[in-house]
Amino acid sequence: METVNDLNPMQREAALHTEGPLLVLAGAGSGKTGTMTHRIAHLIKDKGVDPYNIFAVTFTNKAAAEMRDRVETLVGEGVRMWILTFHAACLRILRKHADLIGYRTDFTIYDPADQKVVAKNCVRELGLDEKRYSPAYVLSVIGKCKERGKTAADFEAEPSGTMQHDSLAEIYRLYEETLKGNNAMDFGDLIMRTVFLLERHPEALAEYTRRFRYIMVDEYQDTDPMQYRFIRLLAGGYGNICVVGDDDQCIYEWRGADITNILNFERDFPGAKVIKLEQNYRSNANILGGANSVIANNAGRKGKALWTEREGGDKIIFERTYDEREEGRYVAREIERCVGDGYSYRDIAVLYRTNAQSRAFEEAFSVARVPYRVLGGVRYYDRKEIKDMLAYMRLVQNQSDDLALVRVINEPRRGVGEKSLAKVRAYADASGQSLFEAFSDEDALMSLSARARAAVISMELAIRRYSDGDHNIQEIYDGLMTDTGYVAALEEQNTVEAERRVENLLEFKSVIMEYEESEPGITLSEFMEKIALISDIDNHDREEDAVALMTLHSAKGLEFPVVFMPGMEDGLFPSGRAIEESGRIDEERRLCYVGMTRAKERLYMIRAQERTLYGRRDMTMESRFLREIDREYLEGAEKIGSDTTDYFHGAMGGGDGFASAEVFRPFDLIGGIRKEVARAHKREDGGGMSGGAPFAAGDKVRHNTFGDGVVLESDGSVVTVMFGSVGKKRLAAGIAPMEKI
Length: 741
Prior knowledge:
Rossmann fold
């Protein structure tokens, strides 16, 4: 069996250092999970610490499960310790102490689809513009508030002076009232309300600070303000906190992660020891060298120099294609070449910046018959029939869940129309009942037709039948499928679509069986928690022989022998917003670093010279991240910069802006630029402009911020310039800090 002596010197030092605050800066592929699990094993086996007194927290179910399995391999099965995600840990605390914050312990967790329904209903109820206050926008505002511990009352109290803020405050207030009335919480609540619980109820906090003598936090760079407060509270007991992370892999600032949490760890925990894990066990030397050369351009880093004993290996392959369709075909061809070299499809991933890029690859792979799976699309658990049955199961668990009842009241059809439902809702509001309770009331049922009354009573009896606590999950599920008439209604449709839905429902029974076999005695409440906390990436099946398509953000924590990174263009990656907004490029560069370090043996980086995205077709400029890779690690390095520098050399060197015929190639972006400049020359009749404007097409210019460029077009007030650094820009003539050179 592997022991702590099998670790490298820095890993071993981290595993054996147990007392006081410890920061482990773990570079990509440096074996941090092994280090953490050996540290836990050392505490239990060598120092005699009761597993009950150890708490390890991470971000994904996958990471938590892997850590738990490895700890049990080292110290034996049945370890009584918390190895949980942040949400799962907070949920466990809330289940025990929900009464302290005004909830019942059987509260429901609303997933993003449920949240959208609630948000949309709130906007409608308040009579606000549904386009202006879309569910996505509203939930973004509410989510950001909860990441920072800002309640609806806090948000409402902020000075604003704008109608938009006041409307959002009303929506937030009603949203919270709706959730509370349904005895439900969303994901943001799980952490925010746990922090409030621990801060406001010292007796609850003392229970956990006494228990957890040793706390370990994985991916500490991704913690947001409320997760940070949660950890600080728990660490206030013994002070034995070990955080593991990598500031170079902080890629979630857009959803609340605060990189200063890891950068300021030594300030927050005086006397902290810092250990760096810099030996990489994943990528070959060329891939690692290329990634290091990119991330070195970020300022404010802790600073690491990853190295590997896997010298050499394939260089990073750079390819330039004409457009996104050719990009897709190129990737499909190279995948088949990799398979011919002995790789399996499951060994390969295509990582892109935005989900919109997947279309070109799906089309190309379908034609080439390359098996693939898109991660980040519709989750299995988001299919309608699965959501419907989960809503029935939620009602068994929590009969205050009005959202669940509204979802299934007519699934299958029971003849409860909108007007009848509105009358029952009004009755429930007036009598202080939930909708389920109102539908059990004879007075409320009088608003329904005789057929509808009979159908609703039958459904209500089925829900109550399985709420007695005497049934396991399979029995509840089987009973609900039949007693509610759901499956019978699908079978009556006698269509291929209905048959597929029945098959999905039967497959979900397999999910239940697996949970009950792996966790004997699991309750309905515990099962519903696990389903609610599953992410799409947790469902990534490594055994399915298919190429994985996913965003770069989704790939965090994964690794593949072969990785393709398409769309390496300024404006796409890094994103246009990151280029425009101060301080955003660093996070995009970290995302590039994360993508590159997912690759173990082969890494392809591709850019298209023209791209159609969101209904627009534009010429592109290669990503600045490509230009930051040291050429010694690249195959195809001569292609980087050639599509612009050839033109700039001609246009800026005093000629007419056209390179020689032999330089012109069909896949040259510059071909498009030349045409555009030629058209501009023609329009402006050799460069003359009305009003004596100083810039003409073909002029070489220098901008204080963007550097050197070439004028493509000018109408006297607006000048369009192609810059070598940032691509095409439209600037105000006479105002922009720019001059001819």
